[in-house]
Specification:
heterodimer; A: 403 residues; alpha/beta; D-Maltodextrin-Binding Protein, domain 2; five-stranded mixed β-sheet; 18 helices; 45% helix; globular; B: 316 residues; mainly alpha; MetI-like fold; 2 domains; two-stranded antiparallel sheet; 13 helices; 72% helix; 3% strand; disordered C terminus
Chain lengths: 403, 316
């Protein structure tokens, strides 16, 4: 038990010292960076990229804040006018947030810095543009590719990944005969939608539904038939949280994910990571894929906008993007940044003309919910009438598009 | 002499009134702070929500008034109507289940068996454990290769032939009922405590008198114990209904923010979350919040009418 005298001395000492206890480098500008949670590999890649930025910008200290629920937490911060200086902006929500007037238009920063946008893949810039305003710069791209487990494929006598729909159907028959689930893919428009383009259809044209096209109907018919025959299974049907987990546990021979799958498998399922091969998604009329992208953005009420822009300029420049993507967690969204070794397939898919980014318009989330709800309802029924199911999915999803 | 007495009486009355006034001021001072907090944080916020529901409200505030448009939208919105149906169906099944289970456990624990304290703590444990942790474990248990399906396989059930290959929480026909089963178990401990508290206030002499008069245990339970538990019935059912209609955490963990599949796990509170954070329609979400209040308030008034305005006791 402290004596009263010791306690008084301690309090007085603390009071005298505290005003002089300043953080190191008090002249630094602190830039807060808000991100969503990610894998250890992504965390390491981001930390390295930030470190290289800070070496080149010693007056800026980047402090990362990781959100469990990035969307909800960012909205709360926007509403209280205390957004972080820089944050991840997902392409799917970019137009919704831009319409709310909470994002800073980066055009003036781009022009003032003479920051060239020509190296960016235009389709990865598009989700962040509204008219002449630019609300984010894409930090990377991640197209869906086909991943296969060589061990399971060999058991069914399959030597190479299927490159066409017909080859996939044949491979699926062989795998099912060996009681191996061919493909684990969720009944999600952000997965199945990749085949709409391959079959000559689309998800959307602008803000209008593209689901009524013959190509989309053919793609949906093919996908639902696969769910009915067991060639496709959802992660829930395989007791997995997501398709990557099912693939890692060798519950399926194929899956379709982006480059985020590689570091996850290396960490959690190294044996499967070693036996994984990658290729383009099976092509119908043409090869096609869906790509996901996210940008760095600044809030209209962010405090340190100039320092935030300096950070974004670096991270979306050739050098910063090169460091970030060198870990293989994503593919560069710029053509002047090398594809990381081992990700050539992902890189080719990212650059392919037949790869489209997921739609981005105000109300896109409502369309996603409508498609996913109806499709999951249909695929749960082993006796589903595929034609009726396709019609129902198209009808209910199209009704969710903005009027 | 009389004049003095009148003066004394007037002085006493005046002093009494002053004392009463002082006591009132003291009493009101003590409750002023919590009352102000209640007024601001509960009633004030609710009134503000009614205002927001009349606006087209974005992240940064009002974009203009829309009157009753949000309410008209709600009544024509199939997802909202499904959410109402799910919430009321859930409450209609879970409340009787948790009430009966809670009463059964309370009677068990009150019967002076050996280890009653241990059982009381054990039965109450699910109520104090983290809801998210319990739901996550439940998701594992109910997965196609989970413990529940392994048990079914053991007793000869063809699990792959079942709904959605045994993925109970991913099938629109079984997802909500699976959550009902989970919550009837987790909330029964709390209801048990409410019943136990009331059981222990019942005067033993009523039971003894009934037994002396030749009543069987079943008759004592139905004609003595159950009526005397009326305050507990009202409290358990009211709080049960209020809690059940506001189901959210298990729904979002099991079905995601979109309440899939087929919106079978979309509840009113989950839809409010979906509208706020996925669709950024805060005015519409506020309107649904107001409608939720109306539903809960209506159900509570109905129960009050059924149970009566004051507790029934043996003296009445």
């Amino acid at each position: 038990m402290l004596s009263r005298k010791s306690l008084i001395v301690g309090v007085v000492a603390l009071a005298l010292v505290t005003p002089f206890a300043t953080p190191a480098n008090a002249a630094q500008t602190v830039v807060t960076l808000a991100t969503w949670g990610s894998s250890p590999a992504e965390t390491e890649a981001l930390n390295d990229a930030i470190a290289t930025f800070e070496v080149r910008n010693p007056t800026i200290d980047v402090q990362q804040v990781v959100h469990n629920d990035h969307g909800a937490q960012m909205i709360a911060k926007f509403a209280s006018k205390t957004p972080p200086d820089v944050f991840y902006l997902d392409a799917g929500i970019a137009q919704d947030w831009a319409a709310q007037g909470i994002l800073e238009d980066l055009t003036k920063y781009v022009n003032a810095s003479n920051f060239s946008l020509t190296a960016f893949n235009k389709s990865y810039l598009a989700p962040f543009k509204t008219g002449s305003a630019l609300y984010g710069l894409p930090k990377d791209a991640n197209p869906l590719v086909l991943e296969g487990n060589k061990t399971l494929m060999a058991r069914a006598g399959i030597k190479t990944l299927p490159t066409t729909i017909a080859q996939f159907d044949s491979a699926a028959k062989l795998l099912l005969a060996k009681k191996i689930t061919p493909m684990c893919v969720d009944a999600d428009i952000n997965r199945l939608g990749a085949y709409f383009y391959s079959f000559g259809g689309s998800i959307a044209t602008g803000t209008k539904s593209g689901l009524n096209s013959a190509g989309t109907k053919a793609a949906l018919t093919w996908a639902l038939t696969n769910y009915k025959t067991g060639a496709f299974k959802t992660p829930a049907q395989l007791s997995a949280g997501w398709a990557g987990e099912a693939f890692g546990k060798e519950l399926c021979a194929f899956t379709m994910e982006g480059a985020w799958l590689d570091p996850y498998l290396r960490d959690a399922f190294p044996k499967v990571a070693a036996s994984m091969i990658k290729g383009q998604l099976p092509a119908a009329k043409s090869a096609g894929s869906l790509a996901f992208t996210a940008a760095y953005a600044i809030g209209k009420d962010s405090t340190n906008k100039d320092a935030a822009w300096a950070f974004i300029q670096y991270m979306t420049g050739a050098r910063g993007m090169g460091v970030w993507t060198s870990y293989g967690v994503a593919i560069p969204s710029r053509s002047d940044v090398a594809i990381p070794v081992g990700y050539e397939v992902n890189g080719q898919a990212a650059k392919a003309k037949t790869t489209v980014t997921t739609p981005s318009f105000v109300g896109w989330n409502k369309v996603i919910d409508a498609f996913n709800n109806e499709t999951k309802k249909q695929v749960q029924d082993k006796n589903m009438n595929v034609a009726k199911a396709v019609a129902s999915i198209i009808s209910k999803t199209s009704a969710a598009f903005p009027k | 002499m009389s004049a003095l007495t009148d003066f004394e009486a007037a002085r006493h009355l005046s002093e009494k009134r002053a004392r009463i006034r002082r006591e009132s001021i003291t009493g009101w001072s003590f409750i002023a702070v919590p009352m102000l907090l209640l007024l601001f944080l509960n009633i004030g916020i609710f009134i503000y929500a009614i205002y927001i529901s009349s606006q087209d409200w974005g992240i940064m505030g009002s974009k203009g008034g829309v009157g009753f448009e949000n309410y008209r939208t709600a009544f024509a919105d199939p997802i909202f109507l499904k959410a109402v149906r799910n919430s009321i169906l859930y409450a209609a099944i879970v409340v009787p289940l948790q009430t009966c289970l809670g009463l059964f456990l309370a009677l068990l624990v009150n019967s002076k068996v050996r280890g009653a304290k241990f059982f009381r703590a054990t039965f109450y444990f699910p109520s104090i454990a983290s809801s998210a942790a319990i739901t996550t474990l439940f998701i594992f248990l109910m997965a196609p290769d989970g413990l529940f399906n392994r048990f079914l396989t053991l007793i000869g059930v063809d699990v792959p032939g079942l709904f959605n290959s045994g993925a109970w929480l991913s099938d629109s026909r079984t997802a909500l009922y699976s959550i009902i089963g989970l919550n009837a178990w987790t909330t029964s401990g709390t209801m048990m405590l409410f019943y136990l508290a009331n059981l222990q206030t019942i005067n033993e002499s009523y039971v003894e008198a009934a037994s002396i008069d030749g009543a069987s245990k079943r008759q004592v339970f139905w004609y003595i114990t159950m009526p005397l538990l009326k305050p507990a019935h009202f409290f358990v059912i009211s709080t049960g209904v209020i809690g059940a209609v506001q189901l959210y955490d298990q729904a979002i963990l099991a079905g995601g923010a979109d309440g899939s599949p087929d919106y079978s796990l979309m509840t009113m509170v989950l839809y409010i979350y979906n509208l706020c954070f996925r669709q950024l329609q805060f005015g519409y979400a506020a309107a649904i919040g107001v409608l939720l209040f109306v539903i809960i308030f209506g159900l509570t008034l109905m129960q009050r009418k059924i149970f009566g305005s004051r507790a029934w006791s043996a003296e009445d």
